[in-house]
């Protein structure tokens, strides 16, 4: 896995150094992100919707830190126009970043994940499978609960939760035998339903795009 992660993101990432007496950034070895659900955050300081979304995402990130710091992380991929803007923007982020100077890799990642606008939050399962290209909507509608769902790791391709609209449905899935094609995620199952629910057997999905494989980083 480490090799494939390297292919995608390089050897090291940056994190803001909170210790003001030393360097601005801490170098983060890519191995620290191994076996985690990863969200790749395409964003830029000059983009107003990004300026609105970043604090919301940061709030969720901080909320889940104590419980999920070893299961989830975020990597900022900048579309800023220069390094000064990047520095100013990244300072507001509690997660990791691809270094600004690696423009080539930023471009390849955007292309790889078909990013056609910002902000975009791509979420990858720990095995490299694409979980959702629409992490932004999940965060906007569910907040930190979205991250809790993502890290459950089990993916039901093509199935969403009818209650919270989480798409795709992640983790345990509860199906109503009375309502046709009615599915609930774990969190919504707790809120109840008028009919009896069946827990669908958890089979690991092999469907979904393998993102680690075949990325052209040459
Ligand atoms: Zn739900
Ligand atoms: Zn029902």
UniProtKB/TrEMBL annotation:
CDD domains: ZZ. Keywords: Metal-binding, NAD, Oxidoreductase, Repeat, Zinc, Zinc-finger. The keyword Metal-binding applies. InterPro entries: Nucleoredoxin-like, Thioredoxin-like_fold, Thioredoxin-like_sf, Thioredoxin_domain, Znf_ZZ, Znf_ZZ_sf. One of its GO terms (molecular function) is zinc ion binding. Residues 1-156 form the Thioredoxin domain. Residues 156-205 form the ZZ-type domain. It catalyses: [protein]-dithiol + NADP(+) = [protein]-disulfide + NADPH + H(+); [protein]-dithiol + NAD(+) = [protein]-disulfide + NADH + H(+). The keyword Ribosomal protein does not apply. It holds the Pfam family Thioredoxin_8. Its EC number is 1.8.1.8. It comes from the Eukaryota. PROSITE patterns: THIOREDOXIN_2, ZF_ZZ_2. Belongs to the nucleoredoxin family. This is protein-disulfide reductase.
């Amino acid at each position: 896995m480490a090799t494939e992660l390297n292919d995608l993101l390089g050897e090291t990432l940056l994190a803001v150094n909170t210790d003001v007496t030393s360097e601005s950034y801490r170098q983060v070895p890519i191995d620290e992100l191994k076996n985690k659900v990863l969200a790749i955050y395409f964003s830029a300081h000059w983009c107003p919707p990004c300026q609105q979304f970043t604090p919301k995402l940061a709030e969720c990130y901080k909320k889940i830190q104590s419980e999920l710091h070893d299961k989830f992380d975020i990597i900022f991929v900048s579309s800023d126009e220069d390094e000064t803007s990047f520095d100013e923007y990244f300072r507001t982020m509690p997660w990791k970043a691809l270094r600004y100077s690696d423009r080539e890799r930023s471009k390849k990642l955007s292309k790889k994940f078909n990013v056609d606008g910002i902000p975009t939050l791509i979420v990858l399962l720990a095995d490299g499978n694409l979980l959702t290209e629409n992490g932004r909507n999940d965060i906007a509608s569910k907040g930190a609960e979205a991250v809790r769902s993502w890290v459950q790791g089990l993916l039901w391709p093509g199935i969403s939760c009818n209650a919270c609209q989480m798409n795709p449905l992640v983790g345990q899935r509860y199906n109503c035998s009375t309502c046709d094609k009615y599915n609930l995620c774990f969190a919504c199952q707790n809120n109840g339903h008028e009919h009896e629910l069946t827990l669908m057997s958890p089979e690991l999905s092999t469907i979904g795009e393998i993102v680690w494989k075949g990325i052209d980083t040459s």
